[in-house]
Amino acid sequence: MATNGHAEPVSTQEGISEAEAALYDRQIRLWGVEAQNRMRKAAVLLVCLRGIATEITKNIVLAGIGSLSILDDQAVTEEDLATGFFLRESDIGANRAQAAQERIQLLNPRVQISILHDMSLLSDEHFYSRFDLICLTDSSVELIERVNALTHKMGKQFYATGSFGMNGYAFCDLGKHSYVIEQQERRPDGTLSEDAKKLTVQRSVDFVDFATAQAYVWNLSPKKRRKLNPALSALFVLWEYQRQHHGLMPANESVASALSAIGTTTLPAKGLEIASDLDAFYRDIARTASYDFMPSCAVLGGIVGQDILNALGGREAPLHRIDA
């Protein structure tokens, strides 16, 4: 049957059309029709289109999610051009998400792209009912806590990610999350046979919300504490700085002493060690925390973007609660 001179797409299993099967052939071979079908039905909200969000947007739109809504009330600045590859110099002064919309849409016309400007929507619990997954990027610690409290209550998948200089973090709360992994069948003694079959194994994990993760005390041995990435300690200090400064990030090296003072009280309370090299770390963060670095944004955005797709598709183990 044809309509307006065009043949209607022929549906394959799970409701994916032949045209979609051809477009997404390689990834369907990778994670299967069922996972692809889950993604194509998913509605995602992404907040703040800076460097990391730009990379996430590229990855999930190309993969074929159902719809992407981008919430951003900020105008394009010259600094945005360094990491915002959807933006052009002529866009400076225009709304950041609105300026990028047409170029994002060109990546995949099958994905519905919507732009929102009213940040007060994030305080409305009913607003989240239309989305399957919410991702905050480069947001204040208080906004992350507030939004995640609502999404956790509603059983929505949630991510928060951001960069501070050349470092960054990712947090996820997927609620009661089930996923599958593939692993090779093993002999009773744990070894692999030459003709080992691939087994599909169902796993599940119960996530806590951001506030609970923040309150966690790291009861580690001194040896294990020394092995922790200093970026994690710096992240907790940075978040406490934001709490004390209305969500602002450090703007210059003069703030390093304030970060060090915060670390003196914050880190021991969390069971973390005040490493001797943290002062140098604080100086670097104080200089660079407000800026996006393309390599950092590309790596972190790629990791989070892939994890979002895995979460939507119900495949592979998700990120740890907080990664820095």
* Broad shape: globular
Order of strands across the main sheet: 5-4-3-6-7-8-11
Q: Could you list the spans in which at least 5 consecutive residues all have pLDDT below 50?
A: 1-12
Query: What's the main sheet like?
Result: 7 strands, mixed
CATH class of the largest domain: Alpha Beta
Q: Level of helix content?
A: 40-55%
Roughly how many Å apart are the termini? 54 Å
Structurally, how many domains make up the residues?
2
Put simply, the count of helices is: 11
Mean pLDDT over all positions: 89
- Give the H and E element order: EEHHEHEHEEHEEEEHHHHHHE
Here the CATH topology of the largest domain equals: Rossmann fold
What class would the helix/strand composition place it in?
alpha/beta
Rounded to an integer in angstroms, the radius of gyration calculated over CA atoms is 22 Å
CATH superfamily of the largest domain: NAD(P)-binding Rossmann-like Domain
The counted number of beta strands is 11
Named CATH architecture of the largest domain: 3-Layer(aba) Sandwich
- Beta fraction: 15-25%
Quaternary structure of the protein: single chain
Family: Belongs to the ubiquitin-activating E1 family.
Domain THIF-type NAD/FAD binding fold: 24-316
Organism: Mixia osmundae (strain CBS 9802 / IAM 14324 / JCM 22182 / KY 12970)
Pathway: Protein modification; protein sumoylation
